[in-house]
Amino acid sequence: VELHCQDVTQLQLPPSPKYDLVFSNWLLMYLTDDEVSAIAQQMLTWCKPGGYIFFRESCFRQSGNSARPLHNPTQYRHPRFYLQTFGPVQQPVVDDGESD
């Protein structure tokens, strides 16, 4: 297992090795639309063919029932935004010849 914890907008990973899983939890909602698009492209380059990109975001509204400060940098996007953003970067499934 290899873990990277740093500013994702500045993250530069070598072209290989590629990763079986690229994981993000409640990160994209703190980025601009342009940053999310750039990160989506990067995630694809970091992921092995047949690997997985997993991300979890709050959509529509804040989670929990606690009050937030007046300045809240969170962008609660409609799920359609993520489908449109990640849709164009879908990696085609490659047939490795091992399945029936």
What can be said about this structure in brief?
InterPro entries: Methyltransf_25, SAM-dependent_MTases_sf. With 100 residues, this protein is of the alpha+beta class. Helix content is 22%, strand content 17%.
State the strand order across the main sheet: 1-2
How many DSSP H or I helices?
Answer: 2
List low-pLDDT spans. none
* Largest sheet geometry: 2 strands, parallel
> H/E element string?
EHEH
Structural class: alpha+beta
Q: What is the terminal-to-terminal distance?
A: 31 Å
Tell me the overall shape: globular
| Total number of strands | 2
InterPro entries: Methyltransf_25, SAM-dependent_MTases_sf
Enzyme class: transferase
EC number: 2.1.1.103
GO molecular function: phosphoethanolamine N-methyltransferase activity
